[in-house]
Amino acid sequence: MRVSTRRNLGSFKGNELSIEEKWYRLTRLQSLIKLNMDNQPDKEFIPYLERLNCFWFIMTTQCCSGHSGVPNRKAFPLIDFRSALSMEDTIDKIIRPFEDLQYPPWMSIQLHTEGGRLRFVLWLDKDKWKDQIEQLIEICEKVEGRSK
């Protein structure tokens, strides 16, 4: 199947991630990383983004490892993603399992009114964000049926 990349982010609407939107976002992310642009993801996050974006039902949309360019300003690590699962399934299968884990992140669900796109945001612990992302990857492996 050939997917057109001549779209812009504003052309993707709705709560669930589509194949076309995932393709668009992956292509854009790979270009940012390859070109080493200023607005590329934090280098510490790139290996985690690659692993997370391999799951058919998830696409990361933003991340930060907690660096703030502003003195005396706190910045928290975060990762947001869009899901191809329904909102209910995303909450039940991906978000709720964090409640039973050792380092649960603080989570929010946001609806971007300009595009009508739902995204899930995990606000991570400054010292444990790598462990929390590993936990997210393990949860996604279970959802996909790849768990050990």
Give the SSE map:
Elements: H1 19-35, H2 46-52, E1 58-64, E2 78-83, H3 87-95, E3 106-112, E4 117-123, H4 129-144
Antiparallel strand pairs: 1-2, 2-4, 3-4
Instruction: Write down the secondary-structure element order.
Output: HHEEHEEH
Overall pLDDT metric: 77
Residues in helices, as a percent range: 25-40%
Please, how many domains?
1
CATH class: Alpha Beta
Radius of gyration: 15 Å
Structural class category? alpha+beta
Distance between the termini: 32 Å
| Widest β-sheet, arrangement of strands | 1-2-4-3
Number of strands: 4
* Shape summary: globular
Largest sheet: 4 strands, antiparallel
How much strand content do the residues show? 15-25%
Low-confidence blocks of residues: 1-5
* CATH fold-level assignment: Aspartate Aminotransferase, domain 1
Q: Please report the number of helical segments.
A: 4
The CATH architecture assignment turns out to be Alpha-Beta Complex
